[in-house]
User: Fold this.
Amino acid sequence: MQYFEWYMNCNQNLWNDIKENADKISETGVTAMWLPPAFKGIGGKDEVGYGAYDLYDLGEFDQKGTIKTKYGSKDEYLDAIVALKQAGIEVYPDIVLNHKMGADAIQTIPATKVDWSDHNKEISGNETVKVATKFTFPGRKGKYSDFVWNWTDFDGIDYNSATNENAIFKFKDKQWGTEVDEEFGNFDYLMGADLDFSNPRVIKECTDWGKWYLEFTGADGFRLDAVKHIRASFYRDWIKTLREQSKKELFSVGEYWSSDVNKLHKYITETDGEISLFDVPLHYNLYSASTDPDYDLSKIFDHTLVKENSSMAVTFVDNHDTQPGQALESFIQDWFKESAYAIILLRNTGYPCVFYGDYYGIEHDNIKPMENLKTLMLIRKEKSYGVQHDYFDYNSYVGWTQEGDEDHINSGLAVVISNAGDGFKRMFVGLQNAGEKYIDALGHCEDEVIIDEEGWGNFSVKGKSASVWVKE
Assistant:
C-alpha cells in the first residue's frame, strides 16, 4: 500500500498515525507499505519529499525551518517502522537519489546551456553561472556523515542565480549519463542539481548512505524514484551491494514512467532483473478504459508488464503523480475504479499496490474514499486462490474465475466487468464447486448463482460496473 497522497494534511503526524493503525491496516491484507520520502527536503515541513536536501536528516535536525519533516520526527519514523514490522507488514521507503535541492551556498562555475527539447543540443558557448550546488548541512554538523557536496558532484542544474534565468545548464567538462531514457535526446536531467553518476565519489557516497539508511531504519526494501533518469548500472550495483551487506531480499520497485512496455523490458535487462517496475502501461490502459466509452476490455492487458513479465510487475490503479492537480494527472474515473482494483487485486499475476488517496480519499479535491476497496482487499486476502480461468473474449464484458484451494476455506471467486449495459458471463469455477451457491460480494447483483454439476455458472454484472462472486 502506498501510504500517502500529494496534498495530505497530516500535521507532521503521519508516522504516529501509521504506528497507531498498523494492526488495523494489516487486517485488510496489506503485506507491505510504501512510505513517503522520510528525509529533509527543500520545502521543510511542507515538503512531500521529492525536493531532496539532506538524506541523513530523517526529522532530527533544525534545517529548512523545521526539525520534523512533513511526516514527523526521526524517532516517530523509526517507531512506525517497528510497529509495521510487528504487524507483519514489510516497509519500503521511497528513495530519491536523482537530484538535490536547497543548497547551502552558491558556486560560480562555467557551464553551457542546452535545449529543453533536446538535451544533447548545446545552445550557447561556455558562460559563467552562479548555481546552488554547495551542500554543507550546517544543522547536522557532520553527524552520520561529513560528506560535503559541491558542483563537481553534479552534471547540471536549471537555474542561474546571477541572471535569474531558468534554463538547463550543463557544467563544464560534464556529459549527461548513459543508460537513461532517450526522451529529449537524453533524459538524464530532470530537475534540481542533477547527480553525476559517472563520478566515483558520488557513487561511493550514495552507496555508503544506502548502507547507513538500511541499517539505521531496518527497511525491508525500497521504492526507487525516477529510475529512468539515473544510469541503470548504478541502481543494479547499488541494490546488489545492499543485498550482500544486509543478507536480506530487499524487494525493490522502480518508477520508470513510460507507457511503452518495451522501455520497461529494456530497463529490467539493463539491471539484470534486480529491480521490479511499476506497470505504467497497465495504468494507462485502465485510464483509457475509464475515459473511452468504446474501449475494448478484452485488450486491457495488451502491451503491459503484468502480461509480458508478470514476476517483475507492480500493478497499481493510481498514485500521487496521477492524482488530480499533478503533472502526470490521469486519475481513473469513479465509475471504473472498482473494476480497475478488481483487475489488480483479484488475479494471480503481478504485485498490486493500493493508493492511500483511493482508500482514505483526497480531502484537497473533495474526493471521498472509494466504496468497496476494503471489501476487494479482504476478498484478495481470503478468497483469491486456486487455478485461474480467463474470459477476455468480448469487448464490453470480460471476466475470470479462480477455483480456490484446500488451504483457504471457501476460497475461489468469479469476477465480471462491464463497460456497457447489464450482462453475464458463463464461466467455469471447478468441478469441486458443483452445487455451491455464489453471491455478489460487492452487492450490485441480488440474485444467486448455483454452480452446475460440470462446474459452470452464469455470472451477472450490472451496466458499467464489476461484480465479484464468492461462495455464500
In short: The first helix runs from residue 14 to 27. Residues 14-97+200-382 form a domain with the TIM Barrel fold (CATH 3.20.20.80). The chain has three domains: 14-97+200-382, 100-195, 386-471.
